[in-house]
Amino acid sequence: MKNPDEELQLQLHPREKETVSVEIPKDTLDSLKKVADRQDMSLQALLKFYIGQGLRQDLSKLFSSRVLEATAEVLARHIQSEEVISTIIQEIQAETNR
Asked: Is the dihedral of CA 60, 62, 68, 73 positive or negative?
């Protein structure tokens, strides 16, 4: 039987990194620094957080889009009416946007 504490350990795997330069308007950078200070974070940590958050949202949308496309293809093999398929897809989209 496994030790319960072993199951709860966070496993961080080092990933390859690359340094990039990004031009940011000075007023935006000043605002980012203020937010970072208020969050008790470094500017770099805040930027990584924002990038990661936006990336996860975009990847989630991309995945959802692929699932809907696959769903439409499967439905098209079983249902002849494009109107019915469209209605089903719209209903799925409405449910997932709640």
From this structure: negative
For the chain, give the number of residues: 98
Give residue-wise pLDDT tens across range 29-72.
Answer: 999 999 999 999 999 999 999 999 999 999 998 998 899 999 99
Contacts of 85-94 with CB under 8 Å at 24 or more apart are 92/68, 93/68
Token pair in block for residue 45: 């940590």
* In the chain, % of residues over pLDDT 90: 73
Q: Which alpha helices (DSSP H) does the chain contain, by range? A: 4-7, 26-38, 43-78, 82-96
For residues 36 and 43, the answer to whether their CB atoms sit within 8 Å is yes
Q: What share of the chain in percent tops pLDDT 70?
A: 89
* Spacing of C-alpha 59 from chain mean position: 5
d(CA 33, CA 4) in angstroms, rounded, equals 40
